[in-house]
Amino acid sequence: MINLYGKSGNNFYLVAKESMEGIWEFDITKYKEINFMQNHAQYKLEDEEIFFIAIKDEEIKLYLDNIKNTSNCINITSKAIKDLETIYFFQNKSDKIELFIQRITPSMRIEKNFLKMDFDKAHIERNQITIPILNYTHIYWSQENKKIYFKKFSDLESVFSNFSHYYREANEKDIEKFKDVKSYPFLDIKDLDFNKTTKTKLKTLALIIDELDKIKYNLDDYKEYAKKYKPNFIKDDKFQIKNFNNIDDLSDIIFRKIYTTEAGEQEIRKTNSYKVIKNNAK
Question: pTM of the full predicted structure?
């Protein structure tokens, strides 16, 4: 038996006392660990892989405080369960904490009337909220390893908003840098309102901006690459940023996502991730 806890709003609750065996199980040793800080720009996880970030205990202070003081967690209420954001349990391993967190999205909460059997008699349960417990861990933290693990950064950021700096969005200063024609004369950027684009595009843009100074020293190579795979993207020797989708085009070029297969039929393909096997740079 373990205590299952949950977070709703700014409060933490004791949700249930149950065994998680066969319901919710997680074994980190089954995964190959991928360092998010070194790979997140262009890496797409395989099923048996998981991202990690090395962190300090204080970075998950809100949860850790309630783990250390479980008496702060009152029994869940019907009102709180309607706004449940996460459920979690923890265990001690060699006096170190292991934390297992599952996100609860609004679409998972179902409020319905349903028929329920009670011994040999059925009755109607009215306005009952049901929340599925998945056999899936969105976020796992090992105090011993000093690492937090996840498959999707959006899950991590949703639960711990303070982690957003690990994968920043382009801010006003970044955008001004991007538009600096003296520093980057190879970019032709039209009059775009970056306040109207998505967070995903701004995060992609932040990654691009971090690479721009490196590109200047090998600009001809990138231009030749663009002419080969995205000929309409380069005009008058400049990369054309006419709309926000062109940010993805620039990302394709900068991170060399497009390639031609060499064995069998030659196909032009695009990858969502890469692993550096050998760097031939001298």
Answer: 0.68
